[in-house]
Amino acid sequence: MAKSEMQNQVRRLRFENGEITQQQLADKVGVTRQTIIAIESGKYAPSLPLAFRIARTFGVSIEQVFQYDEQET
Amino acid sequence: MNIWQRNAWISLLFIAPLWLIFGQLPILLVYLEGPSFLHLFSFACSTIVGGLLWLFLFFFNKRRKRTGTTEFDERDQLILIRATLAAYVVLWLYFIAACIYAWLSATPERSISVNVMPMVIVGGIVVFLVVQSIATLIQYGRGGKDGEK
Question: C-alpha dihedral over A51, B69, B86, B99, to 10 degrees?
């Protein structure tokens, strides 16, 4: 059975882009700060539109923000 | 704690117990005074509105978007949908259990009061509110802690 694992670089990108806060990023992409916290900690996988908005905020491609690993268990 | 967690706590601690107490009031009045249009109509209206109140959660999204503040996003919506789904599953099980219990209780020698039916409805609303609130709080609790920065 395949086990999927989403990883992301949101936290690193925040610090590399002028150390913007979670609240600032949340305001830019139109979500709550709790959602950014959940995304960074890997507890929530965002929808494609939100993932694109986050990637565009940082000026990178979506693959540079989110990585999807599928492992056989 | 965001507005949805606060709503869930309010629902769990105040609204559900209030329903449990005051929802029985029209049933008691009908039992004591006999059926009247006013009692039946007020009971029907309050249970219809109370049972469908959760639908307003989904209109909240659009209302907030117009004001410019983000207090409701896709994750909140997902959490509320899951909580509502869980509440409906438990409500269905509760309804089946109530029907089976009533069915088993009524024999050719014994009967059950017709007042049990509205009581089952009120109980269903309370069960729905409690499960939805608990499911909401559990989901926010798992991923909603306030981190730094």
Answer: -150
Q: Which domain holds residue B128?
A: 3-143
Architecture (CATH level 2) of domain A2-72: Orthogonal Bundle (1.10)
ipTM more than 0.85? no
Query: What is the amino acid identity at position A61?
Result: S
Tokens of B95: 């309804």
Is residue B67 included in any domain, yes or no? yes
Structural domain boundaries in chain A = 2-72
Interface of A with B in 4-63 (CB under 8 A): 21-22, 26-27, 30-35, 37-38, 40-41, 43-44, 46-47, 50
**Is the Cβ–Cβ distance between B46 and B103 less than 8 Å?**
no
Can you tell me whether residue A67 is helix, strand or coil? strand
Q: Which residue has the higher pLDDT, B107 or B122?
A: B122
Number of C-beta neighbours around residue B130 at 10 A: 19
Q: pLDDT, tens digit, for every residue of B47-66?
A: 888 888 777 766 665 555 55
| Number of domains, chain B | 1
Distance CA B7, CA B13 (A): 10
The CB density around residue B1, as the number of other CB atoms within 10 Å, is 12
